[in-house]
Amino acid sequence: MLSILHHGERFVVVDKPSGLAVHPGWSDDERTAMHEVRDSIGQKVFPVHRLDRATSGVLVFALDPESARVFCEMFEEGRVEKHYLALVRGVTPEAGTIDHPIPRREGGPRVPASTSFRRVWRGEHLSLVDAEPHSGRLHQVRRHMKHISHPLIGDANYGKGALNREYRDRFGLARLALHARSLGFVHPWEGRPITFEAALPEDLRAPFERIGVVI
After folding, report:
1. Which residue, 98, 117, 134, 212, shows the most beta carbons closer than 10 Å to its own?
2. Whether pLDDT at 27 is above 80
3. Can you tell me which residues the record assigns to a coiled coil (predicted)?
4. In angstroms, rounded to a whole number, what is the distance separating the alpha carbons of residues 86 and 202?
5. What is the pLDDT of residue 26?
6. Is 198 exposed, middle or buried (0-12, 13-18, 19+ CB in 10 A)?
7. Is 107 exposed, middle or buried (0-12, 13-18, 19+ CB in 10 A)?
8. 52 given a catalytic annotation
9. What is the pLDDT of residues 79-121, one digit of tens each?
10. Nearest C-alpha neighbor of 45 from the set 4, 2, 11
11. pLDDT of 40-80, one tens digit each?
């Protein structure tokens, strides 16, 4: 289910499929990305950030508690550059930044949050955007695009059910149209910039092709 993009001494980077929760503490699932990675590489792993269950793409796990602390600080301090591809309803502006407070976790207080976006394709009633969240809040890209009236296709929480069903039935888009395409940072122990990328998975690539999305 998972493909490994990098396996070093301190951390491992994987390409997570949609439908798989990251950590057992964030779901009731018996199998999670953490279990899959642990079993694949044969050692304990430590989650340092999260992707929604429905989101696919680049995901990092640390391999020891000290490395986990370092990565958690990097994510918390905004020293990790994250880019997502999101197919959204309507034609967005060419680019923009959304500043709108949202919770860190379910039921928590709203805190400052910022996401930049750039439109990379437009259809008659759709846009594909490259979204770059500058903070790590709950459902940040999904909430922020909804806030500017461009909810994600396939989003059961913040989108439109009738529209989601239409794209599922017509184009086979049966998941959230959100993919963590790349993640970059300065290597904490080597001091060099490093970026990891995950190709668009088939369960997005094929529906996008039917819709006419050009990347």
Report:
1. 117
2. no
3. none
4. 15
5. 56
6. buried
7. exposed
8. yes
9. 999 999 999 999 999 999 999 999 887 778 899 999 999 999 9
10. 11
11. 999 999 999 999 999 999 999 999 999 999 999 999 999 99
Please report, as a single letter, which amino acid is at residue 85. L
* DSSP secondary structure letters along the chain: --EEEEE-SSEEEEEEPTT--S-GGG---SS-HHHHHHHHHTS--EE-S---TT-EEEEEEESSHHHHHHHHHHHHTT-SEEEEEEEEES---SEEEEE--EESSTTPPEE--EEEEEEEEE-SSEEEEEEEESS--TTHHHHHHHHTT-PBTT-TTTS-HHHHHHHHHHH---S--EEEEEEEEE-TTT--EEEEE-PPPHHHHHHHHHHT---
CA pair distance 1, 37, nearest whole angstrom: 10
Active-site option among 52, 130, 155, 203: 52
The token duo for 209 is 């092709």
Cα separation, 183 vs 187, whole angstroms: 12
The dihedral region occupied by 170, where left means phi > 0, alpha psi between -120 and 50, and beta the remainder, is alpha
